[in-house]
Amino acid sequence: MASPKKKLQGLVAATITPMTENGEINFSVIGRYVDYLVEEQGVKSIFVNGTTGEGLSLSIEERRRVAEEWVTKGKNKLDQVVIHVGALSLKESQELAKHAAEIGADGIAVIAPFFLKPWNKDVLINFLKEVAASAPALPFYYYHIPALTGVKIRAEELLDGIQDKIPTFQGLKFSDTDLLDFGQCVDQNRQRQFAFLFGVDEQLLSALVMGATGAVGSFASRDLSTLCSN
């Protein structure tokens, strides 16, 4: 079973992908971005190529290069670099998962495929299992965001027995307003030491009361004008 050096918890910054005026990725900003998060925001864990980073709007090659830059620039500065590797194509998601392992990422996360959607828990778990198996040494997190994927399978249902199918499963990023579902995730899995990372900034206080172990959000990246202007 995957065992991270440090448990993913506390504040995790969902990173923005910096762009130039011409729509090209501005890789030169990422080193300063790391320093900004660590020195000014006190945040040492990041979630790369997720919704905030517009990962699914980037090409596979762009996603690979962004991941590489964050891992490289974050070395010896960041505690955890988790790469979102979800994609509509299973093969592309597997490719991104393998790449994340090769470059030294600390974990991977995957959303549900959302064009031809999984119609039940077993179909979704089979997809996630195939991706996780492509990076068997990395902790695996499920990214639950039904408002964008349209996949309405409750997270609480998905977690039931998930480590039997995905031994590297370590927790989930819960980006939904259904606090009943979130609370049941926590209550029914307290003994498993999962990471319960909440992803809706506006409801974070409520989630913390219910047992969230951390938060993934854009809260640490809301004033980047000084970085992008230099």
TrEMBL record:
Record carries keyword Lyase: yes
This protein's UniProt keywords: Carbohydrate metabolism, Cytoplasm, Lyase, Schiff base
EC code(s) of this entry: 4.1.3.3
Superkingdom assignment: Eukaryota
Coiled-coil portions: none
Catalysed conversion reaction: aceneuramate = aldehydo-N-acetyl-D-mannosamine + pyruvate
Principal cellular location given in the protein's record: cytoplasm
GO molecular function, one term: N-acetylneuraminate lyase activity
Keyword Lyase in record: yes
GO CC term, one of those recorded: cytoplasm
Pathway: Amino-sugar metabolism; N-acetylneuraminate degradation
EC class: lyase
Pfam families recorded: DHDPS
Family to which this protein belongs: Belongs to the DapA family. NanA subfamily.
The protein's assembly and partners: Homotetramer.
Name listed for the protein in its UniProt record: N-acetylneuraminate lyase
Organism: Chrysochloris asiatica
Organism phylogeny: Eukaryota, Metazoa, Chordata, Craniata, Vertebrata
